Amino acid sequence: MGIGDTAAAVGKGLFAGAAGTVAMTVSSTLEAKLRERGSSSAPADAAGKVLGVQPRDEEGQARFSNIVHWAYGTSWGAVRGLLHALTCRRSGGERQPAYASHTGGLPADDMPAARCGGWAMSRR
To answer: Has residue 55 been placed in a domain?
Structure first.
């Protein structure tokens, strides 16, 4: 797998992360409307604390929260794409360190056989 394949995997991951963020946004927006509550400020609060950024007003906080929400969700898609590229580099189901980090390091006996790029990662 070359640099082009890795870039393609990261690009697909970015797209998947954006699609997942859309789904989560729709879901949380519907839930907020059904419960008649406002938007969450958690993304802005957490990122503001880490980055040392403090929005000046409620409009700025809403804008900052939205930016953080989309950047966070989309970037995790890129990480997933990179893990896929690193994990699926070898054929024959050989596991690599990226596979362990993606699955939380669970041994193969603790989960069903996984498929990766058409190659089965069997229980051994």
So the answer is: yes
Structural domain contains residue 92:
no
Mean pLDDT along residues 76-84 = 88
Q: Which pairs from 18-21 meet CB under 8 Å and 24+ separation?
A: 18/70, 18/73, 18/74, 18/77, 19/77, 20/73, 20/77, 21/69, 21/70, 21/73, 21/74
Contact 64, 39 (CB under 8 A): no
**What is the number of domains present in the chain?**
1
pTM: 0.65
13 found inside a domain: yes
